[in-house]
Amino acid sequence: MKNDLLLQALRGEATRRKPVWLMRQAGRILPQYRRLSERVGSFKTMVQTPDIACEVTLQPIEELDVDAAIIFSDILVIPEAMGLPYEMEKNKGPVFPATIGTAADVDRMIIAGEEGVDYTVKAIKLVKSALNNTIPLIGFAGAPWTIFAYMVEGSGSKTFTLSRSMLYNRPEMAHALLHKITQSTINYLKAQVSAGADVVQLFDTWAGILSPQLYTRFSMPYLQQICSALQPTPVIVFAKGAFFALSEIAQLSCAGMGLDWTISPKFARDMAGNNITLQGNLDPCVLYAELPFVQKATLQMLQDFGPNRHIVNLGHGVYPDTPLDAVKCFINTVKQYKI
Amino acid sequence: MKNDLLLQALRGEATRRKPVWLMRQAGRILPQYRRLSERVGSFKTMVQTPDIACEVTLQPIEELDVDAAIIFSDILVIPEAMGLPYEMEKNKGPVFPATIGTAADVDRMIIAGEEGVDYTVKAIKLVKSALNNTIPLIGFAGAPWTIFAYMVEGSGSKTFTLSRSMLYNRPEMAHALLHKITQSTINYLKAQVSAGADVVQLFDTWAGILSPQLYTRFSMPYLQQICSALQPTPVIVFAKGAFFALSEIAQLSCAGMGLDWTISPKFARDMAGNNITLQGNLDPCVLYAELPFVQKATLQMLQDFGPNRHIVNLGHGVYPDTPLDAVKCFINTVKQYKI
């Protein structure tokens, strides 16, 4: 591979400079994405049409010259493939018309095979071929707890009381659903790897709403199952808000750990030890500032993480209205930084 | 005072049992509150009518027999007193028709004196007299950063990009507004103490959205100013989501620190040291479970915090639809627990 900085960093090797990519780099920050999105008209159509998903995945590679591509898709393709379709509502985000509330609902869910999400697998093949071995391609999925929360709540939530209560009140039922999600996710991610994904990232977006005990019981075992099943493919686990789980996550069979911007590099390294690569974690709000400030804050972060085992990213997906010149300033600052 | 367990715990004295109260104990969990609220029809009228605010404050004392009263009010009375009125929208929460975006907006804000929130001060006098020295009365205010975020965003937000960006882009302007909020809050809390509040709690509800660096620069100094100004009244600082700031908060002139449910008692004690009282932190979702489970989880928490310097509470305000028998089970479990 022409530029395998990301893979080197995940293996713990010293790199000539730090690799950089952005969560949500393929999306609304790019004018070419917004034009395409307006023409197609539907987010789900974009996700489900391999040609379009491939085009969107490649847009930031050309525009931003990042060190990795990440397949354009959505974490909610898994519940849909399991039998729970979702809709993307403007200004509201994803909504599930039906949700999981009873054991019968859980029974109705199928363990999705590769065919349920074949559009993403096809898109990966197209991207892989177009990349022509220049940079690695990242596949991804939602972590089982986060997918569970969406399936029970039916959308995002301020307090997630339905899904969290279910963990306390119906633990067997919760585990049964988490098991089906996990198996579906393993099938899906293995298919992504077979199609060409070089790395996979698990997004545990709602990790931070759980107490440490609940997280240990209802998220960690499923993350472990997925990480083990995917060996030897490098896995990055990004558990947003789960400062309390960093040392546990470092014990998983994963090569990297994503960090949100509330976690200082020192805290992360103290908790995680030296055998895992850290990814992150500039506050995405920094990119609304003047360029000299963007540069200064990026340099500070680069320094704070130290020379090794660091993949540069934001602490969250880039916000859709972020100025493109700030994104480019961030990326260029990383590239010019001498380790 | 007949029952001063809360004050003893805040002074670090050994108590015969642990004191217990609930954030949002005066509110929608109580049928008597819901009846009154339906009759009055407006949340703000309830807050602004001393007789009603007094009645609501006393309702949980009779119904739940908790170890402290907390004045019924709202953290947003301060921005309103500064010149930025809010409305309470059904199913949406507070909304500010006008927000702070420019230096001129900041200039327009006044430093509120006691008279701007005299209804709460009057309510405190009524409550204090009705309590007749049986239990302590807690006054409260929002922390300056949280009030700032509301004034800039105009409501709650998923990402708080406007308010956080302002910290990066317009730091002097942000500090000017935070200064006015802080002075107003000091005036307000001093008036609460003069009227009879025995303890005050600062709610930094949106602490967890800031990076540790931003929190250190834009929240901590203002918390310190308030804590110092209120000496020798005991202050409890509850910075939700700010796991990264616990050791800094322990250095403030405050007697207690609130903890949300993502923070384990051991982590909190390790970070905070032994010279501060910890308050919290049962996951409020536990109260949706069966009573034996509520009891078991409460006992576990009581044990995990150890015998001293602990005030029992939830890790967040009690959710409005929490079953009352679970709340009572929680409280009774605390009262029957032998330290």
Detailed description of the structure:
Two copies of one chain form a homodimer. In chain A, 49% of the residues lie in helices and 12% in strands. By secondary structure, chain A is an alpha/beta fold. In chain A, a hairpin with a 3-residue loop joins β2 and β3. The first copy, chain A, starts with a helix and ends with a helix. In chain A, the strands form two sheets. Chain A has a seven-stranded parallel beta sheet with strand order 1-4-5-6-7-8-9, sandwiched between helices. A two-stranded antiparallel sheet of chain A has the order 2-3. The longest helix of chain A has 25 residues, at 171-195. At the A-B interface, α9 of A face α9 of B.
Quaternary status: homodimer
Q: Which geometry of chain A do the CA atoms define?
A: globular
For the record, the CATH class of chain A is: Alpha Beta
Strand content of chain A: 5-15%
CATH architecture of chain A: Alpha-Beta Barrel
Percentage of residues assigned to helices of chain A? 40-55%
Biggest sheet overview of chain A: 7 strands, parallel
Domains of chain A, number: 1
Question: In brief, what are we looking at here?
Answer:
The first copy, chain A, is of the alpha/beta class and 339 residues long.
